[in-house]
Automatic annotation (TrEMBL), chain A:
<keyword id="KW-0658">Purine biosynthesis</keyword>
<keyword id="KW-0963">Cytoplasm</keyword>
<dbReference type="InterPro" id="IPR029062">
    <property type="entry name" value="Class_I_gatase-like"/>
</dbReference>
<keyword id="KW-0067">ATP-binding</keyword>
<dbReference type="Pfam" id="PF13507">
    <property type="entry name" value="GATase_5"/>
</dbReference>
<keyword id="KW-0378">Hydrolase</keyword>
<protein>
    <submittedName>
        <fullName>Phosphoribosylformylglycinamidine synthase</fullName>
    </submittedName>
</protein>
<dbReference type="GO" id="GO:0006189">
    <property type="term" value="P:'de novo' IMP biosynthetic process"/>
</dbReference>
<dbReference type="GO" id="GO:0016787">
    <property type="term" value="F:hydrolase activity"/>
</dbReference>
TrEMBL record, chain B:
<keyword id="KW-0547">Nucleotide-binding</keyword>
<keyword id="KW-0436">Ligase</keyword>
<protein>
    <recommendedName>
        <fullName>Phosphoribosylformylglycinamidine synthase subunit PurS</fullName>
        <ecNumber>6.3.5.3</ecNumber>
    </recommendedName>
</protein>
<dbReference type="GO" id="GO:0005737">
    <property type="term" value="C:cytoplasm"/>
</dbReference>
<dbReference type="InterPro" id="IPR003850">
    <property type="entry name" value="PurS"/>
</dbReference>
<comment type="pathway">
    <text>Purine metabolism; IMP biosynthesis via de novo pathway; 5-amino-1-(5-phospho-D-ribosyl)imidazole from N(2)-formyl-N(1)-(5-phospho-D-ribosyl)glycinamide: step 1/2.</text>
</comment>
<comment type="function">
    <text>Part of the phosphoribosylformylglycinamidine synthase complex involved in the purines biosynthetic pathway. Catalyzes the ATP-dependent conversion of formylglycinamide ribonucleotide (FGAR) and glutamine to yield formylglycinamidine ribonucleotide (FGAM) and glutamate. The FGAM synthase complex is composed of three subunits. PurQ produces an ammonia molecule by converting glutamine to glutamate. PurL transfers the ammonia molecule to FGAR to form FGAM in an ATP-dependent manner.</text>
</comment>
<dbReference type="InterPro" id="IPR036604">
    <property type="entry name" value="PurS-like_sf"/>
</dbReference>
<keyword id="KW-0067">ATP-binding</keyword>
Length: 245, 82
């Protein structure tokens, strides 16, 4: 069986793209680089899943994700999602891009404690059917790096209530260091086709180069499951091309 | 060449951590007249030709589409600079 193809959008200055590509490969997928100026659907036509990697695209200028959200590829992705042909996953800054593009509700503000934060954070997986979290069990606690200067998720009470009521909060922080509303770290659209996670799982995929772990430093590889989930979703054979959406 | 100024502020109901960090310094600096600070952004658009009503409308369109994010911000002001 051929490896499921996963698109990775190469936004200018997105520092995590190379690590996301490696994580996709290690999870058994075949990464396909996509140029942000792509305007033709054929570039994404044979893809089931596209990842927007994190890492300060366009220097975080204007607002994090704001300039990436205006790139031509975003409307191609949005059209494919509307046609139920594609799942789009945003990691870190990629999540910010999805809110800026209006594909996910809410937005991000500066961290509530000043500065750029880079820390390992424990998260609770709350949804185990999404294209990003189907490899986990309910209430799994995973440890992932999180790095952001504008990492606080915010949304209106109405939007937050809707996310909770529809089971669209897929991952939540175990502590409130990010200052995000209701400690939300990952969300899904109602149809499960647009997913965002404010964390950097691509740096917790290889033993020795992962997060701190009881067995030793760098041995934490809890991020693997997220990429395995994405590869599974890309290889799914149901009509909508997503697992359990 | 005329300039159009666009001012964008964090929505009142959205926390402004940057403003709060500035605010926290005020008492020590002796500024007790101000009870809070909110930090926004000012954009200056240099106009090709005259700043007509149509151009001002285009500036408002740009502000709504790109310069402000309606989830977290609002457009406080769009005007031709004096």
């Amino acid at each position: 069986m051929s490896k499921p193809k996963i698109g990775v959008v190469m936004f200018d200055a997105a520092t995590d793209a190379a690590s996301v590509i490696r994580a996709v490969e290690l999870a058994g997928g075949q990464p396909v680089k996509l140029h942000p100026k792509t305007t033709t659907a054929p570039d994404v036509a044979d893809l089931r899943v596209v990842i927007l990697p994190g890492g300060f695209s366009y220097g975080d200028y204007l607002r994090p994700g704001a300039l990436a959200a205006t790139q031509p590829i975003m409307s191609v992705l949005e059209d494919a999602v509307k046609a139920k042909e594609l799942t789009v996953v945003g990691l870190g800054n990629g999540f910010q891009v999805l809110t800026e593009a209006g594909m996910l509700p809410g937005g991000f503000i500066a961290n509530t404690t000043p500065g750029y934060h880079h820390a390992e954070v424990e998260f609770m997986v709350e949804n185990t059917v999404s294209a990003l979290t189907n490899a986990y069990e309910a209430a799994d606690v995973i440890r992932l790096p999180q790095k952001a200067a504008f990492g606080s998720y915010t949304a209106t009470e109405t939007e937050l209530e809707a996310l909770e009521a529809n089971g669209n909060v897929i991952v939540r922080s175990k502590d409130s260091s990010s200052g995000s509303a209701r400690d939300i770290a990952g969300i899904s659209s109602d149809d499960g086709l647009v997913l965002g996670l404010m964390a950097n799982p691509e740096y917790a995929i290889e033993e020795g180069f992962g997060t701190d772990h009881p067995d030793g430093p760098g041995l934490g590889v809890d991020g693997q499951g997220l990429f395995i989930s994405v590869v599974r979703a890309a290889g799914a054979t149901n009509a909508e091309g997503v697992v359990g959406a | 060449m005329p300039t159009i100024v666009v001012e964008v502020m964090p929505k009142p109901e959205v926390l402004d951590p940057q403003g709060k960090a500035i605010d926290a310094r005020l008492p020590e600096l002796g500024f007790r007249e101000f009870s809070s600070v909110r930090q926004g952004k000012r954009f200056e658009l240099t106009v090709e030709g005259e700043a007509t009503a149509e151009v001002l409308d285009r500036a408002k369109e740009l502000a709504a589409q790109l310069l402000a994010n309606p989830s977290t911000e609002y457009i406080a002001n769009v005007e031709v600079a004096k």
